[in-house]
Specification:
5 helices; Cyclic Phosphodiesterase, Chain: A; globular; alpha+beta
Length: 189
Amino acid sequence: MQDKTYKSAIVLIPPKESWDSIQGIRREYDSKEKRWMPHITLFYPFWPKEEFVHAKSLLEQPLSTFPSFTITLREIYYFSHGLQNYTLWLGPEPKGKIIELYHTVSGILSFSQKGEEERFNPHLTLGQVHGKERLQQVCSRIREYWQSVSFSVDRISLIWREDTPNDTFQVAEEIFLGKASTESPTGTL
């Protein structure tokens, strides 16, 4: 339907009170730490910011019945990109609910592409490392002090960025899980 852009995404963002330990690692190892907040990507690229209201209108009602859930960021893993280039990441546990959420959103927005769903691996990027020996040293060092982080996933965020130099992603829309986000506590608007 819409064209996609690398200036927007749908993500899960941990609550700010859990950012300190994650950001401490990202500041040291993640070349994109200033552009991206800590997050687990559901869809990137995504529709342009001008289409966020439409996306929210499609997602809000179906996701209001999708129950919120708790995940823990405990273990450190890595992707190998060849030529001894690696990406460090935290794996959410359990990841089944995130995969279910991914499939739900994908179905609503008609994002299914052959093979894409099988490749989806939810993760929170910590940084990039070059060299196998350096990778092992960095992983060992982080594992010595890393304390797991648990939080409730109760929303998805639609984020966007401008061109450089103002290219820090910001939240434009949030869609809440397990409840309607537009209702006030008294039931009136």
